[in-house]
Batch of 3 targets.
Target 1
Amino acid sequence: MTQETANGSRQVAKTPRKTDEPLHSANRSTGHGPVADGALDHLGALASWRESDAPQDAPTLLADLRAIVAGFAVGAETCPIAPLGRGLINETFAVTTSAGRYVLQCVNQRVFPDPEQIMANLAVLGAHAAEQAGLRVPALIPARDGRPFLRTPAGELWRLMEFIPDAVTLDRLAGVEQARQVGLALGRFHRLTRDLEPTRLGVTLPGFHRTPDYLARHLELRAELPPRDGGESDCMAFIDARVGMVGVLEQALAAGLIPLRITHGDPKLDNILFHAAAGHALALIDLDTVQPGLIQHDLGDCLRSCCNRLGESAEGQRVYFDLAFCNAILTAYAQETRDFLGRGEVATIYDGIRLMPFELGLRFLNDHLEGDRYFRVTHRGQNLLKASVQFALVADIEARESDIRTLIDLAYQGGG
Ligand code: GN1
Ligand code: MG
């Protein structure tokens, strides 16, 4: 996957000016600093490290945001525009106007080479959802020129979506009933998109879950940059011991044992909306990576996020994979998917559960080695820490392999 689509004009457009209040799509829960100063500290720390490091995101100015909102026909803004969510890629804001509440988002074009393809996919998905009760795709608000997005003179692509009311995201799952809701939500997504021919959607992120490509990139980086500290060396040794498994899903696909389907691509807990009062899952959001893929990727990604109860930045604690949550998610997921998944798909679910945290660990480590250009970070070393957390999760999954396989078997044998 290309990570080199940095757009010079974007950097220029986002250079903070002193005359207005800057905003940032900060991480509320981690207290990720909101403004320009934090970004500059971060740069200072990097300067001693490697010259090619560039700021990942400079803050967007409130005045810019107001001008962008005015490009959509949604009435006058009535509340301050506020950063929303904890996404690591796009910038996201909540906007309230006289016409209602909305989610405003800038699509990160260093990550997504063709954001118009995302918007085209959303249109196909939205039309499919209109026919399928239960599949919720947030409505896009057209810009004043009628297009479903707005391009700024600097080339940024912004979109405005309906704000789904009474919905919340969860930092962590509080219990097995919430875990069950996660499994139902993902299973329903796969069930309701199963009759959508995968080729109707374009590829928005080429090679997104091609684990062998991340390994190949890793080996290139390693040849250029030998490990500089114990953390990097430990991660590299962990990877070396597992190179044999990275192609397991590609091989199954090539052998015709598993099919391509429509996948979400990023069904981590943050991307699942729950009803604030009733607690049931309402929708999967963050649909940019909906594209042809493998259900094992989605299930593995969802489980690595939801069953790691300490979170992606679990510093100094023993990372583990929670089997009770895994069981609740798998059982509910199987309830929705039992009648259409093939035997080969069920037989490779464990491979996906092991592979996805491994792949994410590789991606975090590669980004660390490349100078934190892809994932938003608050400080140098964060991607390395996150890589080691994912690898610890892989080790725990491996230690519990037979239990996890039993849970998969039970889920798919069970009735109802
Ligand atoms: C990114 O943008 P966000 O936070 O939803 C990433 C996922 C990772 C996730 C890890 C397009 O998702 O693949 O699993 O971070 N999305 C992309 O938190 O790379
Ligand atoms: Mg995402």
Target 2
Amino acid sequence: MRTALRMRLVAPSATLGMAAKAADLRRQGKAILDLSAGEPDFNTPQHIKDAAKKAIDDNFTRYTPVPGIPTLREAVTGYYKKIYGVPVPKEAVIATNGGKQALYNLFLAVLNPGDEVLVPAPYWVSYPDMIRLAGGEPVAVPSSPENGFLVTVEDLDRAATPATRAMVLNSPSNPTGAHYTAEQLDAIMAWAVSRGIYIVSDEIYDRLVYEPAKPASMAGCFAMYPDNVAVVGGLAKSFAMTGWRMGYCIAHPDVIRAMSTLQSQSTSNICSIVQKAAIAALTGPLDCVEEMRQAFARRRDLCLAIIKTWDKAFCPVPAGAFYLFPSLSAYYNEAVPNSTALSEALLTEAGIATVPGVAFGEDRCVRLSYATSDETLEKALTQMGDFLKKLG
Ligand code: PLP
């Protein structure tokens, strides 16, 4: 069967690909230390699981309104009020199958063919493909390890053209953990408003920010400029709920209606049971989120202490998410000339699963996830240091 031309616009996710390769080797009996995971290793908190069980027992198992039941949309608005003090009307909220579907439908809802979308690099693997599938043209805006992988208004302004319609901001970032302060977000917002550029703010890691950095959201900007920004979030990372598939988008009600129309003709409402679980998560106690955040903060420091001993590596201190993105190009040699070769060699020769930086638009780096046990981290990073030393 010959597939459609549009399939040339999309490649399988490199992060999921590496996880599958590691799982294959494990099935063959090899011991793999996995630093490739994009998900918390914690279990979903008990009160959230209980709400899902109750939803089943209560037979809350039928179709619901496409954008989510009103109490779920209100739970999202209540959460933003509680966390950020920002009022968001429930008509500005849609529940989606993970943050991924929110982003996918959002691009489809706002982009026209040929619209350019600025994507600060390194970027999460799915943005360019999603933008292309929606008819847009991703334009990478480079940043560097030396400036903490942050882009400035000047960087964005240099990359913008009359065809620029939107930009993606991902803070904290996958893969770098870079995090924009509230002041930096305000400056980017002011620039975007002045240029008529729509901001897609992917804040899926917004609760995973480590001192001295403070959480910051574009939700406040949305309250001021509802025509200029959409906020995408979800429960996967902060509440350890990757498999449940609960994301959301906060945007102008016209955009939310368009996304709802798309969803009505594709996947309909998200799982009814998950909606009840999500309400429990968003309206319930948040100490479980705080406990996981503290564990991630401790692991980040543990990893950084080991990476500091790799004499040719450069790793900016990430303020959020659960990734490190060290620049390792000083170790590249003839046999291992790039991030793909380094990740392959680490997997097959040292039994360590990582993700090559090239998948995120930065071939000097490799992504390491610290969403795993302290023991695995210590062992993997110590072995990785020994492996790098052998490269030169
Ligand atoms: N955005 C970023 C930056 C991510 O890293 C991910 C997941 O890895 C997502 C969005 C999608 O999250 P979800 O599992 O809610 O679809």
Target 3
Amino acid sequence: MKIDIVSVFPEYFDVLNLSLLGKAQEHGLLSIDTHDLRDWTHDVHHSVDDTPIGGGAGMVMKPEVWSECLDSLLGVTYDASDARDVNDAKHAPSLADIESADDAEYALSAIDPAPGTTIIFPNPSAPLFTQDDAQELSQQKRLIFGCGRYEGYDARIPAYYSAQGYDFREYSIGDYVLNGGEVAVSAMVEAITRLLPGFMGNPDSIVEESYTGKQALLEYRQYTRPAQWRGRDVPDILRSGDHAKVDRFRRDEALVRTANIRPDLIEQLRVEDLDKVDRKL
Ligand code: SAM
């Protein structure tokens, strides 16, 4: 997998060279290139932002700087005569609706011009990034991340690249506002890359995890030695050596913890995925 990250603080991503991510890069499992957005500016101040149209506090990231940067990473050149109107694209016919040669040409041209590539901009007012998204994105060949700053970026950037047929996504990492997209991108990169085959020494460690699999539950609690610590004992059953009982104990814990902490996840479970004992809980 190839990852490009664009930010006005590219040095922020030095941490991605540490630990398992660093090793994965050394072993050629993935490459991460960071870029300074200011490299695509042309003025003496290297400005990437301007005042918001319509008024209001703060500054907004300019579309021209981002488009020069993204075009160069995608290896494309902007041709004004070729640009599709975003409003047209919204009404682009689906393959099922094709009635004329023009429809067919238009629908075909809407097909992703960079298959295997996804552009991702973190945004607090976007859908929440989940483990399922991480799983899906770990199958991609290339990810391009753009970090917002200030009041965010011009809304025409995602609209334009989506209309050009690119897989352009915006994600929030939680219901709070950060100063910039760098922390959000670091979190997403880590969540995605640890799912790459060969990333984890023990592949089983990513199978039984919170939010993972068909039945996305919170994980059961974990313990290690010593069995007694400061007056607190590890539950006897975990030391019994009876694997069936240990599995049942952990499953019960996962269900009860999920019901208490994330009832929304319990509501998504399908009754047919629950066994008899689950249903009694
Ligand atoms: N004015 C924006 C709003 O109220 O939604 C907040 C902009 S924030 C200060 C600047 C940048 O930080 C955003 O463009 C985004 O890239 C990033 N960011 C902040 N909070 C985030 C979150 N919860 N999830 C993802 N990205 C976030």
